Amino acid sequence: MSKLEYLDENYKLHVIDGENEGVPEGWILVPEEAEVYSEFADRKIFLKFNEEIVFGYIKDVFEILPIWSKKEIVVDRKSRILWIRKMKEYLVERDGKYELVEAYHLDGGVEVPENAEVYFKFYDGNNFLTFKENLAFISTGFGYMIHHLTKIGIMENKDRILWQRNPSLNDQYAEIEEVRQNNIDSILSERQSQYGCYEDVAKTTRDILKALRIGNYENMPAPHQEALHMIASKMARLVHGDANHLDSWVDIGGYSKLIVNLIEGSK
To answer: Are 209 and 229 in contact (CB under 8 A)?
Structure first.
């Protein structure tokens, strides 16, 4: 049974088996090989391309459109494009390796199902797989069904992987962000074991500084005030975290030494 393509009122593509029977009113029959449906002057027209040459569907045939002599002119007028056919993915074998290409139709190529991640050599033939967490799903022609092999089991058989989709930039960025976030969480956990709860340290630091804001504090030079601030922070870490954390004691002495150097250098 033949399949026909239609655009609905929102220019969404539908594929229907059989003839025109049962097609909702207002749907538009898409001619074979049509790649674009676009506004053209005072009407709408289906277009196809032969490399850079533009053909319009006029009186049931595709004819060259001299006014739109190049494909780039059509593509540049995005506001006029009502529908554009999505290219399909195909695998092409070259020198014993499979390469991914995009085309509207490619004779001799292996069409790649949507969401496929791996083309795998099984004992009874080759097939596409996709993964969710550690589960493997095999393409059936009607979607995917779960496979008895796991993702780890598939990936361990590298010699049987004929093609594997390279992760997109978004996937790579997401993976980098996940690693970065895990590192941040690990660092924060380590710091809390050394210094105590951040909220407690912050409150105690403020309490110490509040106690210091008497007498001549407001007239002290900025370096002196900042040194007291940093020392207060180190003191708070010691009382809420590891009291034997050597770096905190060394830092207290270091900030004190900075002020000593400033005072001695001004004499």
So the answer is: yes
